[in-house]
Write a structure and sequence with these properties.
87% helix
Amino acid sequence: MQTQNRLLDDLARVATGALGAFTDMRDEVETRMKEQFERVLGRMNLVTREEYDAVKAMAAKARAAQEALEKRVAALEAKLGGSRGKAAAASKSPARPARGSASRNAQRSRSGSKSR
C-alpha cells in the first residue's frame, strides 16, 4: 500500500510542477505577444484617443459654423431676391475699354520712337 501512496505522491508532485511550468510559460507567451502587438501598433501611424476626440470636436464646431453660414447666405439671397437677376445680368457683361484708343496709342508710341 505504501508504494501506491508513494506513486500517487510522485504523480501529484510531477503534475504540480508541470502546472507551474505551464503557468510560467503562459505568462511568458502573454508578455511576448503584448510586446509584439505594441511594436506593431507603434509602427502604425495611430492617434491617441485624446487627439481623436480633439479633432472630432473641431470638426463638429466647423460643421456647425458652416451650417450657420449657409443659413446666413440663404437669408441674404432671399433678401436680395428680385435685384439679384439685374445684378447677375450686369456682371455677365462688364464694361470694356474702347479697343481703338489703346491700339492707336501703341502705334503712336512706336512711330514716335522710329522718327527720333
